Each structure stands twice: as C-alpha cells, then as structure tokens.
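Supplementary notes for students who missed Thursday's class. We covered one full example, reproduced here. Read the sequence, then the structure, then the short commentary at the end.
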Amino acid sequence: MFEFCADPKSLEGFVWWSCYLTNGKHMAFYFSFITVLSLLLFTVPLIMALGFAGALARRSQIAPVRWFGWIYTSMVRGVPDIIFFLFALIALDQGIEYLRHVALCPDWSEPIRQGNDFRVCPEAKMPLGTAPQWIHEIYGFVLAAVGFGIVFGAFAANTLYGALNAVPHAQLETGVAYGMSPRQIFRRIHLPQMWVYALPGLSNLWMILIKATPLLFLLGVEDVVYWARELGGSKTAIFDYPHGDWRLGYFLVLLVFYLLLTWVSEKAFGRLTAWVSRGQATVGGTT
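Structure (token representation):
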C-alpha cells in the first residue's frame, strides 16, 4: 500500500507491521467483516418474509396450505443446519443450471447425470465460466444468504406462530365488537400485540444467526474465518511476510468482533422490546 513496502524483506519493526497489516490480503480480511455484516442485513428481510409466510400458512383455514407450513417449519428445524445449508445450496444451484440448460441447450444429447457428476452445457453454467471473479463471489454469497434465509425462516415461522397464538383472545374479540373486519383486526390489533411475545424468541434467533455466520467459510465464501486461518497460519521465507503460527491472535480478533456484535445486538433488542411494549396489554397486565 505504501511505497516503502516495495521490498518487505528489508523492513523491520513498526514499518514492517505497517506494511504487513495493509497488504492486499489484509485488506480482503478487513472487507470480510463487511461481508459478514452484509449477510446479516441481507438475510433478515428474507428470514422475516419466510417466517411470516410460514406462520400464516400454519394458521390457514386451507388444509394444504396449513400442511405446507407445518412441513416447512418441522422439516427444516429437524435437520442439522450444516446439512441443510449444503443440500439447499447444491439443489438450488443445480436447479438453476438445469433450467438454463433446458432453455439454452435443447439439442444437448448427453445425459446431465453422469455417475456422481452433474454436467450441463457451458452456456447453462451459473455464472458463466468467462464471468469475472467478482460475479462468482456475489453469486456464491447470494446462494449462501438464501440458504441462511430458508433455514432461519423456519425458526422465525415457529416463533411468530407462537406469538400470534399468545395474543389474548379478548383483544381480538374487542375488535369484532367494534365491527372491524378480520384484516383490520389483524393489522391494528393482532400484529402490534404479537411483537411483545415474538421479540424474545426473535432476539435469540438473531444471536444464533450471528453465531452461524462462520458457516460461510464452509460454503465457499471468503469470510472472516477463512482469512483468519489463511493469514494466521505459519508462513515460511517464500512469502513476503514470513511469520509463525499466529492463528490464536487472529481468532482473538474474531472473538472481540463477535462479542461486540452480540453486545450491541442485546442493547438494540432491549430498546426495541421496551418500545413495542408501551401500552400493550399482555397476560401479565398492561405494560
């Protein structure tokens, strides 16, 4: 980054550290923190959308819709996260390529399934082999985010379903007495009251989501764990900046990052809970 860093072999002391901590790989390491935060911000709307869809599906009067909501929440919550992440990403990726293959290569005569291999025409690859590296990285990030959304959406659906059922029925009956329609009751009474019961479970789910972000490393995304292992491992003299095994130091940095993120989240949820609880009637009385 600096001109005096052109020859790392001749550096020592503070100058060596300044060059070491500002080289290209460390810049990627710093950017990976933004990748983790971006995953959280990108997946939360998806998680909440799937959560509400699953919760409302379980409450539906239409049996097939209710069954679908029950199967979604029960199946995803009953499968280990890492297995579902890998399965969902592989299935989604191959599904996209299969649809592109059918549309773009109708004359393809070779079987797509060849033993353990999944082979489609080059035009159907997603992304294309000639695409820039950043497109491959964004595509992998989006697939990972979708996988996180599907898994944690099922947990959110279960939480929201319980919160909707926890709203005192007398509150809903009051809306009926005032002549409100079912939609008005849900929008003006049921939904606002529900947050008091949903936020404790959603806050726990958010903490679990934070702790699950290191799984990005296993999904092929260059996140903080990937770079901590990459940079912290022993580097011999063939590298520009040789050093011993510094993984402990790098993972201590991650420890501080995740503890700080958890602390900020606890404060934010505490304020949010106090805000949604103002004037709300619960089974324990008005707060």
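Commentary. The first helix runs from residue 13 to 20. The chain has nine helices and four strands. If anything here is unclear, bring it to office hours.
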